[in-house]
Hints:
Layout: E1 12-19, H1 23-34, E2 39-42, E3 61-64, H2 67-78, H3 85-94, H4 98-104, E4 110-112, E5 137-143, H5 151-162, E6 166-168, E7 173-178, E8 184-190, E9 196-207, H6 216-223, H7 239-247, E10 251-252, E11 257-263, E12 272-273, E13 282-285, E14 303-306, E15 309-312, E16 318-323, H8 324-329, H9 343-346, H10 357-362, E17 366-368, H11 371-378, H12 382-398, E18 419-431, E19 434-435, E20 442-444, E21 450-456, H13 472-489
Parallel strand pairs: 1-2, 1-9, 2-6, 9-21
Antiparallel strand pairs: 3-5, 4-5, 7-8, 8-9, 10-19, 11-12, 11-18, 13-16, 14-15, 16-18, 17-18, 20-21
Amino acid sequence: MSGSGLPADWDLEADVVVLGMGAAGCAAAIEAHDAGAQVLVLEKLAPEFAGGNTRVSGGAWFDNLAPERAAVYLNSLAGGFPLPQPVVQAWAHETARNTEWVEKTLGATTAAVGGAIGGTGPGMPAEFPELDGSDVYGGQIAVDGKLGSARLLHALHSTLASRRIEVRYSTPARSLVQDFSGTVLGVEAEAVDGATLRVRARRGVILATGGFEANADMVRDYLRFPQTLTWGSPYNTGDGHRMAQKAGADLWHMDNMMSIEGFAVPGYESGFYARFSYRKGFIYIDSDGKRCVDELPRTGHGNALIHGSYEHVPVRRLHAVFDEATRLSGPISPNGDMLAVGWNVLIEGYQWSPDNSAEVEKGWLRKAGTLEELAAELDVDPANLIRSVARYNAACAAGEDEQFGRRADTLDALGDGPYYAFTSAPMVAWSNGGPRRDEHCRVLDPFGATLGSLYAAGSVSSTYSWCKDGGMHIGDALAFGRIAGRHAATASTTGASR
């Protein structure tokens, strides 16, 4: 025994050890504490970066109007990738408690979010209104009714502090400690000074370590993208996934994700969100210079109905080509006063120029006087590019895009030069798959058995097997974070001395 009364090979102990402090980790820690457990949170990053994608997301959750209908909607969203019904039922009932929990437990003021890019105007409708159960979707709710600026995360972290829940920053978990039966006893982490820190978890370890979108190997293996480009935290490197796999966990829906249009620029680890919010005078061309997609399909959070089935969008590297009028109409990448989300906006503090001129000067947006010159810049066939623009402009004049079915109200023709372009790659906002878990968030092995006292919640193992609506990522993290915290707090004592 050590002088502190702990086993000689344990440096610390707690009833529940939570790894990560985004929405899921914080909710788990708060709920476990309020259920009477002693809680310790280990966070990989320093305070100014902590919180995973919750720090840089919109921070809103969907308004679940009726749990029974919510279960129907989730089953519809899952499509051909069905989920275990106990998980569906837990999700349906617990997400309906999110607003009350944020108000009563966090003490935050909440309100509905408007539908425009900055969170104003009519409320946000369901993104898949054609699916059974979509009537349950009551829009999105956020702290103060506003998207972004880490409002939800600040409320969560303030609640951790007010409850005096111990947090150790800059202390990444490296592996799970198990006994000979495979039961998880605790965690090995790396202390600030680089030393190994062995932490015993008497009742449970909760993985809330985020996704794997910043892990290039995992992105290639599971999402099938040859490159890695993240919109959120560049530190979401699949740590929890790998620890769980080493401990014997099974995996579910590892190919599911939410991707958005974005592009990389020198000096920034995460990408910039690309959104033509004002004039729509642009097309996407492939590496051969040909227009190849409907640039503005009606999408949900990462999926669109294309050719009769729901497909991930975007999934291709494309060149965006636009004209001078579109360049002058407004920033290609939204600023914080428009949409206060994304790593480069909130953490790096970058402010995109209103007319994109600064980014043209930096070379982030390519400029050419003619389409032939632009084709040379992009290394594409100039004849194909010229034909593509001419065919698109003809569609604009006719008011109908027979080639790809782009909506008539988005058909703004490209004018004369100069022309501009950037190369867009699928930018992964969230990965969704991870260690398979049950309705109590207990991690399962390939045969359906639990790994003792190991839990998972949030993007490390989100519920969504295919489609997901707005506010469902945060809604899922809050709901299953609470479930994991409650269950772990009341679990039988584990982690005997080694």
